[in-house]
## 1
Amino acid sequence: MKYEKLRGVKDILPEESFLWEFIIKKTIEIFKRYNYSLIIIPTIEEESLFVRSIGDVTDIVLKEMYNFLDKKGRKIALRPEGTASVVRAFIESSGDVKDFFYIGQMFRYDKPQRGRDREFYQIGIESFGVNSEYKDAEVVKLAKDILDNLNIKSYEIHINCIGTKEDQKNYSNKLKDYLNNNKEKLCEDCKKKLERSPLRILDCKIETCKNLIKNIEPITLSISKDVYEKYEKIKIILSELNIKFKENINLVRGLDYYTGFVFEFTTDKLGPQQNTILAGGRYDNLVEELGGKKTPAIGFAMGIERICEVLKAENFRLDYDKTDVFIVYDNNFKKESFLLLNNLRDSGIKAVMSFEDSSFKSQMRQANKVNAKFALIIGEEEMKDQKFSLKNMRDGTQMRIKKEDIIKIIKA
Ligand code: ATP
Ligand code: MG
């Protein structure tokens, strides 16, 4: 019997995984610059951790959770996102570090399509303990630095402020009043949300719902004075950092724990349904709600698949995976070639050779295939003179060099 992978999951093969390596490497570079530390969290948690933090009337909890009973009948879920687990770990460990980043797969029973998988990867950060407009601005700058370091051009930054839980309750009542009069125009999901979680309607991706909420009074008019003032300060700092952003009054995020400042980075490369590539915001109540001390916090998550799609759409070319040298040898000198291969690698050069006995011509073809910068040719004549031929694969020029000079020349 031949197996196939399940719907909504994928194998990432080397044709694409080099992009993943690039994304992870470049992103970690920026995390280090900002003094964030890696945290590794489990893929399974008690289901209620997610229900309580993400919210019981969110799409994730209502429709998308991978949950099951374990052998002892406990309710377990595969993590649909990282924040809840990092907050749990933060409370449980009470260590000194307060700025974390994570990388890993998340699971959501989403409708699979481009940029929307059932197992997908996020890179995210969570920062605890600071409630300052400078922190909020710093987190947006950090996210922007990541996209810039990845050389992504087509993105926009959208921001909003959704106030305290109390503000959200007041605004939800206004929304209810307004939308109850237009109930029949809402999609089936939003009709359900109207009673228990009207704010979520602002996050609906269906055109008729979007139209309906277009002219609604913005939430920023309903938020408390100090939160609003802080939001104004964040905008000023962002401008001073030369960060361009758009205020989006319908931006509420799909998870319940957010309070105050929220943001999304969007792209026009992935179609309207999957246009968010990075998203986050402040969640100042969650640590306390999950049993910790009251601690302000802010974080974001970036979807690796969507970043990959944007890089591909922008025709991104990567030079960093090139082989330095491919050894092309006469089969009589396999051992000598193998020893030389190891010398090269020991000095930090990315060197490759084939162990099959094959012709010069076939080896040159392989050198081209792995994108080698040089071919080092070891034939009878070369062995006799102890002078090897080094062919530059880009311009086709060739020179004879002494064995002891090989490493120096390739590195140059
Ligand atoms: P969307 O509105 O597109 O469903 P979301 O609001 O559910 O996204 P978040 O929970 O904020 O997404 O996750 C942050 C990021 O993770 C998203 O911006 C996106 O890049 C990525 N992401 C979310 N769900 C998926 C998925 N099913 N497949 C691939 N990437 C995803
Ligand atoms: Mg979603």
## 2
Amino acid sequence: MSEPTSAYKGPERVFSGVQPTGNLHLGNYLGAIRKFVNLQHEMECIFCVVDMHAITMWQDPKELRAQTLEIAAAYVAAGIDPEKAIIFNQSAVSGHAELAWIFNCVARMGWLNRMTQFKDKAGKDKERASVGLFVYPNLMAADILLYKATHVPVGDDQKQHLELTRDIAVKFNNEFDVENFFPQPEPLIKGAGARVMSLRDGAAKMSKSDPSDLSRINLTDDPEAIAKKIKKARTDPEPLPETSDELKARPEAENLVNIYAALAGTASEDVLTAYAGQGFGVFKPALADLAVEVLSPITAEMRRLQGDPAFLEKIMTKGSERAERIATPILRDVKRVVGFL
Ligand code: TYM
């Protein structure tokens, strides 16, 4: 797979997105949204609600609209300043679809056949999966490269898609002989929240689609629900050890320690220094208190904002206009490079 490039001379720019498919959870917050909040002070940032990705699986239109507004509310409630960063929904800027088509013709079937997310989402009956689900990663590459974004904050599960994006960028640059036209975007994945696991199974990631609501902490959960889910989280009878290495064979315990570290903004080692020798009878209530302290204000603000859909729609209309202004000259250049009249 391709290595980062330093030869690209364009401005640094962040792009990332979240699908409006319901059940926004702690993994989405720690793996992605919280990173967005920090990055807005460092670089130009574009944060998208990827409604076109959402419809690769069936979505009820009414719910899709509500969930699109919910993600916008979550962005703002978490601390993204819509005056500073761009917040918009993907379908409002047609360049995403146009560039995705070109990338459908750049990416190879073999590359897409290797995508593990398609295999997971399509399940056993691949014949019945939408074609959109198969070419999903090409649309994701288009999202990022439509703005020549150089940095992409995501959770660990998006790593393979980012590698594909880089491969598409390299192939486009090589085939059309336009050196460094597209950057090779750098994934920003590291940190304790990069892979938040299910509270019921330390081997599965926390996911919107897990049928058990006890497996995840939703951003809409109230303090009682958060405390209950952490109390019921699967663990083992051993006390917490002194080093992270000793947690390796204890995935559920490791997950809770990582969640604590990510919420507190420290390293797992620091959490273990404070709690080594303690059992989950002590650790779980402390974790629940911390989770409520961090998430409750966001949940409350999300609810308030969702009560004002006109405000959220205004943010996204303005955001899509700003996004369009960046995308238009880039897409014009792409079309010229490809040979469109
Ligand atoms: P989505 O909507 O599934 O998830 C949104 C973000 O949350 C992260 N995430 C997690 N992080 C840590 N632990 C977890 N358990 C966990 N679950 C989800 C995801 O990694 C993601 O960062 N394909 C993307 C959306 C997308 C996108 C893009 C992202 C479309 N275009 C362009 C970046 C750039 C997705 O399905 O995310």
